Amino acid sequence: MTWTDALEFLRGPLFRIAFLVFVAGLVYRLIRVVALGWPKDRVLSAGSKTKGVATTYAKGIGIFPFIPWVKQTFNGNAVTFLAGAMFHVGLILVIIFGTAHMLAWKSLLGFGWPTLPVPIIDWLAAATIVAMVALLVNRFTHPVVRKLSGPAEFLNWTLVFLPMVTGYLMTHHLFFRYEALFSLHMLTVDVMLIWIPFSRLSHFVFYFFSRTIHGAQFGKRAVTP
Amino acid sequence: MGEETIYEHLTQQGVSRRDFLTYCGVIAGGLGFNRLAPVSASGLPEKLADVPGADLTSFVSHALQTKPRLPVIWLEFQDCAGCTEALTRSQSPTLVDLVLNKISIDYHETLFAAAGFQAEAARQAAMEKYAGQYVLVVEGSIPVADDGVYCTVGGRTAVAILEEAAAGAAAIIATGNCAAYGGLPKAKPNPTNAKGVMELIADKPVVNIPGCPAIPEATTGTIANFLVFGELPELDDLGRPKAFYGTTIHDRCLRRPFYEAGKFAKSFDDEGARAGWCLYKLGCKGPTTYNACATIKWDGGLSFPIQSGHPCLGCSQPDFWDGGGFYQGQSAPLDRPAATVVGAAAVVGAAAGAGFAVANRSAKKKLVSIDATPGEETS
Predict the structure, then answer these.
(1) Which one of B328, B334, B345 has the shortest CB-CB distance to A24?
(2) Between chains, do B332 and A28 touch, taking CB under 8 Å as contact?
């Protein structure tokens, strides 16, 4: 078996399986979460649910991240905040606005969009990788984060880090043949796709659930932090 | 006759000493691709170290003056004769003309004057006369389904002809993607169960010169390598000479700077296409395709597909017909699962989720009902 065969398998059948597992897994998780039920709410509202939701999104991803010193995370552990932000921004931009990635989306969705110039994507990818390394170091050095880190955290980190690194090496044609790195990139992406629904990596969906519910509850009780 | 050297053979054909040395220079140039840095692994520099003067031309002329003529038998099976057409239209006539016409070809169906039984007889005669010495060039894939009936020449199957001819060959050169890896006939669903030479012949050295068609200079250069060194060039893991297949199209592409700068043509008639920008978004397979198109080019170095504005199809790679759409970006998955399949996956996920949810609820209800009647246990 050659790298060409491997690449064909990893871009073809394995990707299809991974994608279907990803879809089925996410729907399964969604149903499980929704079916947890809603406790009957007999308490009178002390504040506005809508306002609570709006505030919590503003704090979470809207405005406050850009004024870090109002964030507890930043004051408690600046590395988690800064590297975490860098990682998330970089990852999202690379995945959506990288030319190669957009073409993958286009083939699945049927439509494409303008992409960012390669050098910008390249620097973002490098920054994302550096941020991930910083976050890993932080997990070992920060006493609190260290206590919070178990095997699941390190596995999640690894399964996100590998596609990042193989993708970066691939676009730069470093160390190995292009199709070998392309194969490894696809393999790690396929594994990550399968892993996402059943791990905390699924927070890219469930983050919005928890933000909304917590925001509504805080708002209703007028205790929005 | 068999011991007649190439030089003697050429002088008999009226080639002067001056022309002979010119030819030697041409062949040396053809082999000189080996000297490019990425393929120095081919070992040519070490071979030259033994030669007095270490001059490639004098090395070639020494070889041609001492070695016997190299007979070539050229067979065609499931092919379009495109590789032959490319050879005959090659604009580097000295090398191709020298290697194929003046020195080597003993049997070639397309180029032969003879036809029918005469041609068959000529092949048999050549195979007997040069048994164990000739280089067998194969063009086209070999079908093996239903005892190979889908390709017959003179009433005999391609498999039988290949096996017979391979038995007496010193080496086999599979030219074109069909002979090398099955090519177009092997594309899904491969109705004739077409195979490349390497899949069928295990006991002879086989060199693949894939391409659609193969670059003429790569075919003749490989024959020249055998002529001069008496052995086949060093091959990569897909059986291709490293001298011609050592780097990707992308590595040597004249549009590569635009790739690095992120400037892509988005359609065949937009501003980027007119400005000669990178064709990656239009489905170029250059990054994974190993061939010499970007360096040797076609028609005497005039151009090659990417230079002319068309993305590389990856025709020197195995199964390139099934490697995703020609005009689909290479990063895209090979195929898109049908909406119904994705829907089915979602339904399976939903059913599993609902199942667990129902099971949990009934378990919870039981617990609640036990909690609600504590008196029964305590009394």
Answers:
(1) B345
(2) no
H-state helical runs in chain A: 3-11, 13-34, 49-57, 72-76, 78-97, 99-109, 118-141, 143-148, 151-172, 178-195, 203-221
Task: Work out the pLDDT band at B44, boundaries 50, 70, 90.
Answer: low
- Assess whether the region B69-245 and the region B247-361 belong to the same CATH fold: no
A121 touches chain B (CB under 8 A): yes
One-letter amino acid of B323: G
Q: Determine contact: B348 vs chain A, CB below 8 A.
A: yes
Q: Which residues in A lie closer than 8 A to residue B346 (C-beta atoms)? A: 23-24, 27
* Phi-psi map region of B193: left, alpha, beta (phi>0 left; psi -120 to 50 alpha): left
Sign of CA pseudo-dihedral B224, B226, B227, B229: positive
Chain B touched by A41 (CB under 8 Å): no
Residue type, B289: T
Right CATH number for B69-245 from 3.40.190.10, 3.40.50.300, 3.40.50.700, 3.30.470.10? 3.40.50.700
For residue range A190-205, what is the model confidence (pLDDT) as tens digits? 999 999 998 888 888 8
Domains, chain A: 3-35+77-206 (1.20.950.20)
Q: Which residue has the tokens 């070998």?
A: A180
Q: What is the pLDDT of residue A45?
A: 77
The structural domains of chain B, with segments of one domain joined by +, span 69-245, 247-361
The ipTM estimated for the assembled molecules is 0.77
Q: Is B152 on the interface with A (CB under 8 A)?
A: no
Q: What CATH number matches the domain at B247-361, 1.20.120.520, 3.40.250.10, 4.10.480.10, 2.40.30.10?
A: 4.10.480.10
Distance from CA of A75 to the nearest CA of B (A): 39
